[in-house]
Amino acid sequence: MSNKREFRIAVFGGDGIGEEVMGPCLRVLDEVTTIVGGFSLKYERYEAGATFYRKTGVALPEETYNKASKADAILLGAMGMPNIRYPDGREISPQLDLRERLELYAGVRPVRTFPGLTVPLADPRAKDLDFVLVRECTEGLFYSRSQVDLEDDHVARDTMVISRLGAERLFDFAFRLARKRKANGYRGRVTCVDKANVLGSFVFFRKIFYERARQFPDIVADWSYVDAMALNLIQRPWDFDVIVTENIFGDILSDLGAGLMGGLGMAPSADIGDDHAVFQPCHGSAPDIAGTGRANPTAMFLSSVMMLDWLSERHGLMALAEAADLLDNSITRAFADGTLVPYEFGGTAGTEEITETVIKGLHPHCARNNG
To answer: Looking at domain 1-105+269-371, what is its CATH homologous superfamily?
Structure first.
């Protein structure tokens, strides 16, 4: 806990629609900060990403990394462009560098549906989803992403790494999250997703999961193979509370979760370590809609809610939690009557309209008028 009242936020707009959703997000944060009071946010803007790489030959300058690593939190729009790549063919992804270098081992991907918006699943229970996927973000199959073993253009090998340290800290995070959610009325259940029927590394992964589960006797621990989980997230996603898994499985399942919500524009995320955290929407740079005004900023807004909550817990400052609740409630109310429909849901609400509606909803008299 600390007595801090001013928080330095490293801001990366990045590529494509990243900057287009970041500007509105900072407007929303400024508004909620003014309304609640008791703290301030100081933004430090930095350039990085694919477009920056094309201009400079560097995706994330070392000086920029050093400055951002000293901030209280990092807010990121989107990075990467399909047509801009490293010489080896990989996309430019400085966000992965941040995860690895800052040891942001817990990728938190909430899956929550919003009243007033349509969802893909017909079952009425799908309109009230609220679970969290926790993805390990520093090792797994991503561990060797820059070290592929290529033999004479005939064989390529990537090495998956699962360490005891990486697994233990991941599982402890997931169990603590389930305990926190249980105190707020959720199931208190953690489901480990793996492929332990085929790969020995996942046998090790699950072994450590149940070792750590013994430290949390108040939380139910169970498991699922990843293929079965893909099926279950379509057939009965409402049965889950906290899902924890390896890096690449989490990468895939988190997009499935976004699909259950109706689209990536509604899907926030946080990559959290012991000392640092990055907050960004799950969507990419979406160059196909960049510059059209159609980008949905909601996932960016919700990621900033997660940032405020994390800062509140880290520094023991209730004003930050109040701001997070106010912003989250305003976002929920914005869509509740079904008239504000983003383009990805078949509507016509773009970046500016969604932003203005959320800002208006932050003010108490507007909140009352909106029910």
So the answer is: Isopropylmalate Dehydrogenase (3.40.718.10)
